[in-house]
Write a structure and sequence with these properties.
Elements (H helix, E strand, L loop, with lengths): L7 E5 L7 H11 L3 E6 L10 H10 L5 E6 L5 H15 L2 E6 L6 H4 L8 H22 L3 E11 L11 H21 L5 E7 L5 H5 L2 H11 L8 H11 L11 E4 L21
Parallel strand pairs: 1-2, 1-4, 2-3, 4-5, 5-6, 6-7
Helix pairs in contact: 1-9, 3-5, 5-6
């Protein structure tokens, strides 16, 4: 038997086969879970349906990937349509993965103090408020002991230069996790966040992931970077019955980087003063 045999849920945020959301979804599918997926709507006139096609390249071949529908997380009707489709296919859902974030590249590339008002509002709505919106839309179809997981990053806890406005959004997201855990706890629904170290993803490329990979390799206690498979297994754990009793938490999978209070082995690369 697989860990997710008989379990059904919704995966939000797969962009392509390098997405963290896909790494988690793949683990669930291969452990017997049934998943419904959303994808970023394609632009009008895009006959190639690029966004949808990137996700179908992942899900093709999995009979337990039950549906794929477009969703603009800034549109409440789209969110409701996804949950209505989930209710139609599954009745109740046992898990919900939120892996959605966006900030304008111009705002990411400027100092935080220069973040535009419109850019801040958009980044916060997409990256943080959306967790509240999708959880609220799903609350009536959660099964007993359902689990919600959201993807976050260490830049929401500490200042990570270059992460800028997205760090503020992740801090808000993590606070939302705690408050949603409180709200939904009496229903038996758990809400947690997974804070992954840097990985080469579509979103990571906009946040200077290559520099972060080099930094983590030198600073993390494991002295290496994490893998998609490792994060996938951790995300699946948070969405499974294996994590019953855990809620309102931010679980790190970053090789131990978050535990460091000094540059550690990185100091070995600094020229010694005579």
């Amino acid at each position: 038997m697989g860990l997710f045999d008989g379990k059904k849920g919704v995966i939000l945020g797969v962009a392509n086969d390098r997405s963290i959301a896909w790494a988690i979804a793949k683990q669930i599918l291969e452990e017997g879970g049934e998943c419904g997926f959303s994808h970023l709507p394609d632009r009008p006139g895009d006959e190639r349906r690029k966004n949808r096609r990137r996700v179908t390249k992942c899900t093709d071949g999995y009979e337990n990937a039950r549906f794929l529908v477009p969703m603009n997380v800034q549109n409440d009707d789209d969110i409701q349509a996804v949950m209505a489709k989930a209710a139609e296919e599954f009745g109740k859902i046992d898990f919900l993965l939120h892996s959605i974030a966006f900030a304008d590249r111009d705002d990411l590339n400027r100092d935080t103090v220069e973040t535009s008002r419109e850019g801040f509002k958009m980044a916060m709505e997409i990256s943080a408020y959306s967790l509240i919106a999708v959880t609220n839309a799903a609350k009536d179809i959660f099964s007993d002991n359902a689990a919600v997981a959201a993807m976050t990053y260490f830049g929401g806890e500490k200042c990570v230069p270059g992460y800028n406005v997205m760090g503020i959004c992740k801090a808000a997201l993590e606070a939302a996790v705690r408050y949603l855990a409180y709200d939904l706890g009496p229903r038996g629904v758990r809400v947690n966040a997974l804070s992954a170290g840097p990985l080469k993803t579509l979103a990571g490329s906009a946040a200077g992931v290559n520099k972060m990979l080099a930094l983590y390799e030198h600073m993390a206690p494991l002295a290496r970077n994490i893998t998609h498979d490792e994060v996938g297994r951790t995300g699946a754990f948070l969405l499974s019955e294996m994590s019953d009793g855990i809620t309102g938490e931010v679980l790190h999978n970053d090789g131990g980087y978050n535990a460091m209070g000094s540059p550690g082995r990185l100091l070995d690369l600094v020229p010694k003063q005579e």
